[in-house]
Amino acid sequence: MDRKALQKQVRKYATPDHTKSILQIFTSFVPYIAIWAIMITFMQVGFPYWVTLLLVPVAAVFLTRTFIIFHDCCHHSFFRSSKANKIVGHIFGILAFTPYESWGHAHMIHHSTVADLGRRGIGDVWTMTVKEYKAASKWTRFLYRLVRNPFVMFVLGPIGVFFLKHRFYDKSTTRAGKVSTIVTNVALLALLVAAHFTIGIKTFLLIQLPIMWFAGMVGIWLFYVQHQFDPTHWYPHEDWDYLTAALHASSYYKLPKVLQWMSGNIGLHHVHHVNAFVPNYRLQECLDNTPFLQQVKPLTLWESFKTVKMNLWDEEQDKLVSFGSLKKTG
Question: Which of 139, 155, 164, 271 is deepest in the core (most CB within 10 A)?
Answer without folding.
Answer: 271
